[in-house]
Design goal:
mainly beta, 63 residues
């Protein structure tokens, strides 16, 4: 499968935001995360890293 876990980097500490994410889309100056079940979460962050082999997306809060 191609789901990913999404984390926010908070000063070197990774905090898991959502699992089984299949879509990341910019919306209203934020990022909309959608999982395989259709659950959505809107976060104020930017993409810092995408590790496709590890199924991991790391976000950072805006400066």
């Amino acid at each position: 499968m191609c789901e990913a876990a999404v984390y926010i980097d908070r000063g070197g500490e990774l905090e898991k935001v959502m699992e089984d994410v299949v879509e990341v889309r910019p919306e209203e100056g934020k990022l909309l995360l959608v999982d395989v079940f259709g659950e959505q979460k809107l976060v104020s962050a930017r993409i810092a890293e995408v590790e496709l082999l590890d199924h991991r997306i790391v976000l950072r809060e805006p400066d």
